[in-house]
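Quick illustration, no need to memorize.
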Amino acid sequence: MPQWNKGQQEVLDSINDKQNILVSAAAGSGKTAVLVERIIRTVLEGKADIDEILVVTFTRAAASQMRAKIIDALEKAVSEKPESDLAKQLMLAETADIMTIDSFCHKIVKENFQIAGVDPAFDIYDKEEIVLLTEDVLDEVMDEHYKNDESFRHLARFLMKKNLNDESLREYILNIFRVSESFADPVKWLLGAKEEVKQLKETGSTKWIEDYRSYIRTLAEGYYEFLMRRADGAMEKIAPVNSGTAEKLYEMYVSDAMIMRTISEQGTSGDMAKAVPEKWTPNFPRKPVSEVLGDDEMKELADERDKIKQSVKSIYSEENLLKEIESSAEYVSCLVNVVLEFREALLKEKQLQGKYEFSDISHAAYRVLFDTEKGMPTDTGIRMAEIYKYIYIDEYQDSNDLQENIINAVARRDEEGNINNVFMVGDIKQSIYRFRLARPDLFAEKAERYSGGEGGRLITLNMNYRSRREVLEASNYIFRELMSKNFGGIEYDEAAELHTPDIDAYNESFPVSEEEISGKPELIMINTEKDEDTEEDIELSNEEQEAAVIGKRILELVYGDKENHKEPLMVKNENYNPKRPVSEHNSVYRPVRFGDIVILQRKVRGSSGMLRVYEQMGIPVTVEDSSGYFDAMEVVTMLSLLRVIDNIQQDIPLASVLLSGMGGFSDDELALIVSLSEDKYISLADKMVAFEEGYLGNDSEAGRVAEKIQRIRNLIDGWSKLRPYISIAQLLDRIIADTGYDEYIAAMPDGEKRVANLKNLKIRANHFESVRNNGLLDFLNYINKCQIHNIDFGEASLSERMGDSVTIMSIHKSKGLEFPVVFVSRLGQKFRLREMSENVVVDNDYYIAMNKYYYVGDRIMVKRNSLKKDVVKLLSEKEIKTEEVRLLYVAMTRAKEKLIMTGCYSKSVPAMPLTCSSMMDYIRYAMSQKTPDAYLEVRNLSMYEVESKFKKLYIKKSIDYGEDMIRLLELLDKESEKVESADPYSFVYPYEELTRVGAKMSVSDIKHSEMEKNLSLIDNAEAYNLPNETELETSDIPAEAASTDSMEEMRKRAAQRGTIIHSLFEKLDYNRVTSKETLQDELKRVLSGKGYTDEDRGLINVKRLSGFFSDSDASLFSRMKKAALSDKLFREQQFIVGLTNSEIPGRNLHSEDRVEGSEKSDEDLTVVQGIIDAYFYEKDENDEENIILVDYKTDNVKDGKELLDRYASQMYLYALTLEKLTGKTVKDVILYSTRFGEVHYPEWREYNTK
């Protein structure tokens, strides 16, 4: 039984609480193990049957794993108490409600389809199908509004891009729709957005205004602390040099800090605005500071102060916010009306097709369970609540409003109506799914209430069993300074910190070693600020420089750092067995391998430059990316070509094709085509035509380029002519066949994945045409829509990784995983805040914020940033930044043994977490608060230093493989020409004999192959173990029945009898046998058990089988009984072994049968599998332990010689296998015949030498 720590035991003991439980479980704290244990105890203690428990997980994989663990625990319990009713629980566990929220809703709707108003045979849309349907329905709805809605037409004019298309307007509508669908009552949310002005007038406030005041207060408080640190720093740093300048700076910083304090103490945003002075005094002492610190540092401090002043310069009052929100109410109402109509029309179309999205089923389930008009659960909801005594929710921090309300609808309540049977486990510090509309505030709100004893109980798990102490201390060091209740959703105090378990538990995970293991986590920072004093150019991008640093460190970890006399990193040996002595083959630690290392990034997309650097450095890399399909080079090229085939007058797709490996043009050649064109305004396609006409046939560089143009134009013309007559998938096949493009990409890094990506494109094309019988243009439009809506097909995932390689994956994908060595890279990458700059911003809590639009006169359209949009932008950016903190937490806590962080930086350290713009900013801010020396090994490199070291060893490799690949294909063509010019029939394949044998065989295959060499062995019915007349007379089968049986039936019966006899010998209990009579009783006892039918029993002559008994010490029975009593007998042993050709009968080829070069065939291994009836260990006269091999035979043969003729090859293989697997000598092989007893074959080794 596991040793539970105090927090875990508290969770298990809470099973008796009649209230909700929220478990805040930090990374690596064993939450899943505790959750499973609590569920098992619920069942074992009889508090609920397993089918009275609802377990909701985040993923199907998690549900499957949890079900398996529960079943394993129940199986163990049943084996310990077979008389209990736990067998019933074990049976129920197979169908218990352990599932995702989507699966639960699916079940509710299926079981209550008549209430849900859904066809019980409903299906779920593919993501591609729903894109097409959504676009069609939205087209119809928008068309109606264009015709009949003047407000909509005005809004569309403002939002159209360059007055050409309304794609942005469509996206805003769909975004509002998506956000509303995350709520239990989407219509209520949408109407709330329309009525926000009314609410604001009635209450004088709304959530976004309250949060805005809180934001300004947090900002001012942060700046107050920062400015006071600056004041103290000025005295410490400058006073010893120039006290007068120090005092001026001190006075200025303290004055600024007091302004910030005054702002933070105000109750309304209007009062906060009044607290900001028009003129900040005293002024910044530029000249004195410059004289002491220099111009650069002076400018940096002056700019910093200006930025602080600017951040509070424009604080909006509640009155101004109310006025402006009224001005945009018409357009907000217009958008909401469109969304409501679109929602209704889309649902109607789905009902007609009988297909839905998961969100539709979730809403249908909610309607089944909860009556929104009455505000209470329906009868079905009440009935479900009576069924579920306990509800368990995993990863609660990732729940949304809809999921929360569905669970509440089936939860039990006390007399006062409070929910009291929901057990939630999660970690708000790991809430990283904002893009899926997760609501971590649900977790935070409950944690605050429960910690005060209101509505439930909060239990904290903070003991980390995953990572080394050094990793935990570094994580705590950074997040103490970053996370707070206002920034991250939780105060990172002692309760939230990661703690190491007790010394015994810690040493079990990380045994004490004399070797130097792990060390402090590392931070490698690359300063990308340009040095004005150097003229050196930088060729490597920031990402490539970082890859060079990471690659160097990986090589040092794997191979050691000879320059600094460091050995390779040692990590815990996963195969170490503490019950065995430590040895070379059972070491506690082993050298790290590439496969132990993972590189985590905010996103994997856009890493091609880094991959190229790793390739140059000889580091094998596997990229795990479920997105990025449309960014893959081969997909971009093929889609560009399809666009060109559809319309060759598109310059950008055509240029993409020309510069690809398919086109084979260089940058210089494309520039030559454009530069020599007389008309600069015609399309690239027309320029190519003119160039070809003007230079084809010239013996010059231009002439060779013209030949290339002719080749590619001929291909494109041919494909364009084919397009109307073949499917898109067939067109893709034709392109690949004509160009050999699959061979081209297969020769590139990740070639197998690239080829699979093209196959995926063909599959998607086929699927599209099966749904819509439209042409190429519609397919390309569909692809465009998928890209616009971020519906990524996902890059091909290979089933097996190619050898031992470093893995690159996104931080999101790494959640829930752990790795010996973790690199957290690209920390300097800026947060993605672009979505907040759109004209319309949608937020769960703040509804819809949009810019101001109005006309001056009848024709002049004016756009202004709205105050609400500015406010919502600030608040949303704060939420994005808090999630980025949590992402960093997830990344750092994936490391078990070694953590290394890397990133670029250039600007000064931010004033507070709220003003950070990258993860590197977060870390640098934390280091500015407290020295990192005790927690991190920090290395600060300049980009010049990184590039210089890289260039000494490597030459930067171009990302474009075009020229290299073209040369490679030309060489392949030449080689193929050589082969074609030779006699095509003269080649002799050196391994011809191996084409006639399998890579995997069973012993029976080899046996029959050998028997075929002696036809006399199989040229009679006896080869099929058929009974003869004598056997029939003495068996339990009536002779008259046998005479009427068909040959096939007799074969089946004989084979069945042989199987039963083998089974009897396998289950024979030697303790019960002391005579022939007791042997018969034992055989009858076995036959009477489960697994045997009356027909089976009728086939066995127990009296004949009792001849196996003998009281002679030298008999096989006595020897096997002796071995069985001393646990030296092994029966029905399966095996798989690799044997060389020379060891397999019939494969030992003579030299005259070979051809030159085939010697290696003897080194090839064939996998051989089989089942050994029995073998036992027995000591000889020298007290050495040998093996005796036993095989039971029921063949109807004349004598032992005939039996050996049949089975010598089989016995040879069994004996050889035993010697290989055990290292012992097989001294004798005994075939026990049920007809005439023992046949010994001690000379089995001679078989394969004949």
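Residues 798-802, 1015-1044, 1149-1160 have pLDDT under 50 and may be disordered.
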